[in-house]
Automatic annotation (TrEMBL):
This is Peptidase A2 domain-containing protein. It comes from the Bacteria. It comes from Sphingomonas leidyi.
Amino acid sequence: MGGVIGAIGAKFVIAATGLLVSASIEGHRLQARIDPGSESSTVSARIADQVDGRGAPHGAGSMLRRGRPMTIAMSGGTFPVEALAVAPSRPEAGGDFRIGRDILEGHVFDLDFRSRQIRMVLPYEYARATRRLIAVDLTPGPDGSWTFPASVGGKPVAATLRLSDPRGATIGLPSSANGGAPLVLAVGTTTLSISDVVRAAPADARAPVVLGLGAFDGRRVMLDLPHRLFWIDPRGSRAGGETGRSHRIRNGA
């Protein structure tokens, strides 16, 4: 993908449960689901038994430990974890390994929705990977969602980023109910034109626009939770305003 160096990324799939990626724990390959709504990452009892290999089955709510850090590989990178909680129920799609905020807030992920590639951005790559991108400040919510400043029709709104939602956008703005017309959301110097729109009352009236994974179809973005940033590539936008430098959009600005 343009402007990015380092490890080769892996494919991701957008499913009803969110973003699915391939990963491995101690060499045991599995499908993982990225779930920012979960505070802690979990592993299924089946995978926990395979990784442990000592014969004693793992029950729901127990912890998978090896007496040393375990190696997780995903998206072209590896990192250690000391322990993982065993999921309390049968896994759904991608449920063998649910990646929660405890992992997401420690790493930067580059997602290219054009090629459906995801890769981990290493520290030495960061400056080059963020070149020409717009950085949007994120404010965390209690349910794993994130809000950021945007505007619809020139009017400022608080938008919510929900990466567990495969849809494009859910909006509760009466003035934006233009039949089946796409939602045009301005974020800094770029715009997102979103055709997959559900019009319904939002759970939080203070943030009437909720963006899911479908909002970024055809774009490259970076999920940078360590710095509470969401980077958007403006290239390809009709109102792009592309320059050679990074831009930052702050909450409350």
